[in-house]
């Protein structure tokens, strides 16, 4: 908040005034008007109007937003495979999705990164980008350590924008939900626009470091990549299906990338609404 109301008490003028009682009340009235009007003018002229409704724990609205969607989601593939969404809008059946008018930035944690891990992440993200039409930007490596509760806005680390989607190879000690044989976790954080429409602003993927390293050492890079694609599917808004031929099968499913149902769901998620007010 900008400080800028500099109103001095007219002490010297009052001291030399020949009629203090006659000038005091009009002077105080003018002072009262100024005290009210100057902060109101500053409030209206402040450069942070775009944050209105989001609170202070958010970047200025519309960072990196273009006028139109950056990519083109593929036409809905045919097939029998189904899909479900992680979250629906409060009013209706539309899913919560990322804003297609801005790129989805992602960063990979250098903490616990196994050999070949960064390439694997990049390949998996490229596949999910193609299937959704959403454009991704690789922000490279970060030294942000995995924690269960991640702040979606970290200006000291990532600047004045929503924090990028965070992908980390972690241990159950760092992320307790990885305990018990869970190989990966993924999801995103929504924010509500003024009209209540929810839009994902950032997300996280946590991969069990030891399990993924074992897959890579065993020459099963396809399986390791499929785990990451599945978790990025959660980040983009897909939930599980019972069909084991789909990437979004809870038990792991396809290792050949997204199947027909996954692709239809991703094509829907690539058609989210552009919200420069977030
Ligand atoms: Zn899952």
Q: What is the CATH topology of the largest domain?
A: Collagenase (Catalytic Domain)
Instruction: Bin the helical content.
Output: 25-40%
> What class, by secondary structure content?
alpha/beta
What small ligands are held by the chains? zinc ion
Domains, number: 2
Mean of pLDDT: 84
SSE string, helices as H and strands as E:
HHEEEHEHEEEHHEH
User: Ends: how far apart?
Assistant: 20 Å
Strand content: 15-25%
Top keywords for this entry?
278 residues, alpha/beta, Collagenase (Catalytic Domain), 6-stranded mixed sheet, two-stranded antiparallel sheet, 7 helices, 8 strands, binds zinc ion
Task: Outline the structure in words.
The chain has two domains: 11-45, no CATH class; 84-269, 3-Layer(aba) Sandwich (Collagenase (Catalytic Domain)). The chain has helices spanning 11-16, 20-45, 117-132, 155-158, 209-217, 221-236, 260-269; strands at residues 84-85, 97-98, 104-109, 136-142, 165-170, 184-192, 198-208, 238-239. The chain is globular, with a radius of gyration of 26 Å. The protein is built from seven helices and eight strands; from the N terminus they run ααβββαβαβββααβα. Helix content is 31%, strand content 16%. With 278 residues, it is α/β, with parallel strands linked by helices. Strands 2, 3, 4, 5, 6 and 7 form a six-stranded mixed beta sheet that branches. The chain has a two-stranded antiparallel sheet with strand order 1-8. The two termini are 20 Å apart. The model is unreliable at 1-20 and 38-55 (pLDDT under 50).
């Amino acid at each position: 908040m900008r400080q800028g109301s500099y109103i001095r008490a007219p002490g010297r003028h009052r001291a030399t005034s020949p009629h203090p009682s006659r000038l005091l009340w009009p002077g105080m009235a003018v002072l009262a008007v100024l005290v009210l009007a100057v902060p109101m003018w500053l409030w209206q002229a402040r450069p942070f109007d775009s944050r209105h409704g989001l609170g202070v724990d958010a970047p200025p609205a519309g960072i990196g937003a273009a006028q139109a969607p950056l990519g083109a989601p593929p036409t809905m593939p045919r097939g029998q495979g189904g899909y479900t969404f992680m979250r629906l809008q409060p009013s209706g059946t539309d899913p919560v999705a990322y804003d297609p008018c801005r790129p989805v930035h992602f960063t990979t944690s250098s903490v616990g990164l196994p050999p070949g891990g960064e390439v694997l992440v990049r390949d998996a993200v490229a596949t999910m980008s193609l299937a959704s039409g959403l454009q991704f930007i690789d922000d490279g490596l970060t030294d942000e350590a995995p924690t269960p509760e991640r702040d979606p806005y970290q200006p000291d680390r990532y600047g004045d924008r929503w924090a990028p989607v965070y992908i980390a190879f972690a241990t159950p000690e760092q992320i307790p939900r990885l305990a018990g044989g869970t190989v990966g976790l993924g999801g995103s954080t929504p924010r509500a626009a003024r009209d209540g429409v929810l839009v994902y602003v950032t997300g996280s993927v946590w991969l069990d470091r030891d399990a993924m390293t074992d897959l890579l050492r065993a020459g099963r890079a396809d399986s390791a990549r499929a785990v990451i694609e599945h978790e990025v599917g959660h980040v983009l808004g897909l939930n599980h299906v019972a069909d084991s031929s789909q990437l979004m099968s809870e038990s792991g499913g396809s290792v050949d990338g997204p199947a027909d149902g996954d692709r239809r769901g991703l094509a829907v998620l690539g058609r989210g609404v552009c919200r420069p007010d977030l």
